Amino acid sequence: MTISAIIPVYNGEAYLAEAVASIQKQTLPADEIILVDDASTDQTPALIEQLAQADARIRSDRLPTQSGVAAARNRGVQLATGDLLAFLDADDLWTPEKLRSQVEALEKDARHDMVFGYIRQFFDEQLTDAERATLRIDQIRPALAAGGMLIYRSAFEAVGEFSSGVNVGEFIDWYIRARRRYLHEQIIPEVTLLRRVHRANMTRIQNLSTGYARVLKSALDDARRLPALDPVLRNILDSGIVTTADGESVPLRAHVEETSCYLLQYLIRLYRPRRFVEVGFAYGISAMAMMSAASHAKGLSYTIIDATQSTLWQGIGLANMERAGFSGRYTFMEQYSELALPDLYRRGEKLEFAFIDGYHTFDQTLIDFYYVNKMLVSGGVVVFDDATMPAVARLMQHIETYPCYERITLPREISVNGQQRRIDNPDRLVAFLKIDIDQRAWDWHVDF
Known about the structure:
The protein has helices at 16-24, 44-54, 69-79, 98-108, 129-133, 153-159, 170-180, 202-223, 231-239, 258-271, 285-294, 316-323, 337-346, 362-375, 390-399; strands at 3-9, 32-37, 58-62, 84-87, 93-94, 114-123, 141-142, 149-152, 185-197, 225-226, 241-243, 249-251, 275-279, 301-305, 331-333, 351-356, 376-384, 405-407, 413-416, 419-422, 430-434. It has 448 residues and is an alpha/beta fold.
């Protein structure tokens, strides 16, 4: 596979050479380095010419008028010939193992379309102490930014170009479109991108939250617009009756509520996971809702764990999944979760979405979460049912103390098939987003 590294630059004479050098120092070399000058008015054009003379891999182009970073990146993609595309802003840096680590991750798992690493911000040495005091440097976080991504060219083209009409948050806008097309990423636990904070981008960094909020609101609004439920599931919820494989009718009981099904679908549409585990299956209500929401995901891996499906639940969940057309699209483990989850962990399984709805004692739910946490990747989501039950509610308080998790605010109203639906029991489901790798010390503890 060949790699094209693309740098958009506008008035970047102070930092461009250092950015290019960080590409040249890669332990896995890029095959070409494309510099796109966004009509700079400083000495950038002369510097680009000098850099190109010193490295035959460097190709360049200049936009006739200043058009913005999105347009410059798009021009770079048009010029690129590589199978893989990587981006770097002219004032940022790659760490030396960036390309090697990301290529290895893509080669290891063919299901991935793109791979990210982690980002660390640093202050430019010219900033004064007073200037530094106006900004907060974040802890190391997933590099969900153009400079943090390595992507197959075919996958990028399936999503389309960066939106030149988005002035702030142009990458988030593109990333949301990638999720809607079920492109999928891996986040490797290595710092691959160094973001420089300097005088020229201080205002932009301070304004990022406003731009991101606008783009993310669009994604949230889209995720809240859900289609009608699967016909098999719709009939079960309307009739209150489930049917065994032998045709015996059984009253519906102990099931995930209809509006909870909508919330699960909302989360899946928003975060676009492909590797699932569900603890607790019963009649398959939640499984049918989630499978229908994720049914178009490429490389879907869905594992269901329920030790009493054949006995307590009379095999009805499996029968319902077959009626809904999901046979052969999931793995069923008729084991207790305290045995099945460690088995998945030993096999090296990674998860992006977990729904925990098993035995609701504090210790059992904690054990389920303990193993899910070990397998859940950064950017993954874990959801708990019956979170108002005392034991589960207590565990929610415990998880809220984890530095690597953030509680997701779930909507109180959702649009289903064009009709607004109020969430009947909004506190029943609790969802957490894993925002970082779990780096707690061996003696970590926070009272809860």
